[in-house]
Amino acid sequence: MRWAHLFLIVVVLGVIFFFSPIYSVFSFEETRTNNPEMYYINVSKEHKFNIRFTHSIHLTDVIESYELTKSNQIKLLSMEYEDVAVGMPAHAEEGQTLSYENGKYKLAYDNRILDNFTIYIGDIDMDLKFFYDGHTYNMKKSLHRGSSYLFEVKRISLFDKLRGAVMVYEK
Questions:
Q1: Other CB atoms within 10 A of residue 164 CB
Q2: pLDDT tens digits, residue range 71-123?
Q3: What is the C-alpha to C-alpha distance for residues 27 and 29, in angstroms, rounded to an integer?
Q4: What is the DSSP letter of 67?
Q5: Domain locations in the chain as residue ranges
Q6: How far apart are alpha carbons 24 and 160 in whole angstroms?
Q7: Cα 48 to Cα 8, 69, 76, 80, 133, distances in angstroms
Q8: Which of 21, 130, 137, 166 is placed for a possible disulfide with 155 were both Cys, Cβ 3.0 to 4.6 Å?
Q9: Which Pfam families does the UniProt entry name for this protein (predicted)?
């Protein structure tokens, strides 16, 4: 009887561990589908990350800088770009500061906190990269072109990790 109790305790602890959300990840989950796939990048001790994309009209790079808050929210720090034409801010609004230096505009945000945002992976051959902890992730190679993804930082279980797909960085 004693072995049966020990076995039951081990099984219960195993199940709890397997389904407890203990891993913090950057999550990319498809939005416009009945069977959403989740892709993820493990969060380390680094709190800052960048997304760089090539603007489809200007054909220049736009770099968005972010930071994780202690509550796993996303703090938008700044956006850097070369042209203020179509789709890019030409002036700062309340809570923002716009500067111009060395041929680049930098729009800095005072305190812009987001729970999540949607990223569209366009079906065009232009860069869309995620930079984190010294690694570069090519989102056009990892995620499906023509799909939208809800991007957020969240805690997931080992079960969720096994169901999802880890994004691999470029070497």
A1: 17
A2: 999 999 999 999 887 778 888 899 999 999 999 999 999 999 999 999 999 88
A3: 6
A4: E
A5: 22-166
A6: 11
A7: 43, 10, 10, 15, 8
A8: 21
A9: DUF1850 (PF08905)
